[in-house]
Amino acid sequence: MSASLPQKALGPGMPVMPPQQQTHLPPGLAQPGMPPQGALREISPVYLCRIGQETVQDIVTRTMEIFQITRATQLPNGVTQSQAAYQDRFGKLQEHLRQLTLLFRKLRLLYERCAELTPDLQESPAELIPYVGEEATPVRAEPCSPAVIQERQEVLEKVRQKNQEMKVLMDQMRNLLWDVNAMLTMRK
Predict the structure, then answer these.
(1) SS3 content of the chain, % helix, strand, coil (to 5)
(2) Average pLDDT of 148-175?
(3) What is the average pLDDT across 142-151?
(4) DSSP output for 49-95
């Protein structure tokens, strides 16, 4: 297999060691961000996951930059902006969106490659969906001592009380925000 195989399998823009670095590194000494020399033939899922994590960080950064650009954009309120400033912001926004699309493609390729390398670790999508509106089926466990059962009941009761308190606070906050918004609209 050639060194271009990982590049093709991972997609464009993926970091692969250039040929001059591959020949000059002694075995066992690799750069911190690069896989070992023998791993170029078979890239480990751990390395792919690390690249995926960096890709997700890049996606978040690009998304934040997009929001900053849109936040800085002034809405049309009768005042004409310069066409150059508008074109500049529009160009930056288009470039960020294009890069974001590429990053999502890269992330999809990484995911598919990891799924190929680790078929035994894959979970079915049904296992990933959280329980909505139904109680989880009880797991059969060994009988516990009465003290443990009592402590569990106390903890559950405390959690229920805290949840109820939080619900009351959220309702109060919602009502307060509603009142503040109503006062602000009446003031205008």
Answers:
(1) 70, 0, 30
(2) 93
(3) 84
(4) HHHHHHHHHHHHHHHHHHHHHHHHSPPPSSPPPPHHHHHHHHHHHHH
d(CA 97, CA 93): 6
Structure token digits, residue 2: 């050639």
* Buried/exposed code over 56-86 (b: 16+ C-beta within 10 A; e: otherwise): eebbeebeebbeeeeeeeeeeeeeeeeeeee
State what percent of residues in the chain have pLDDT above 90. 35
Percentage of the chain lying above the pLDDT 70 cut: 64
pTM above 0.70, yes or no: no
Q: How far apart are the first and last CA of the chain?
A: 71
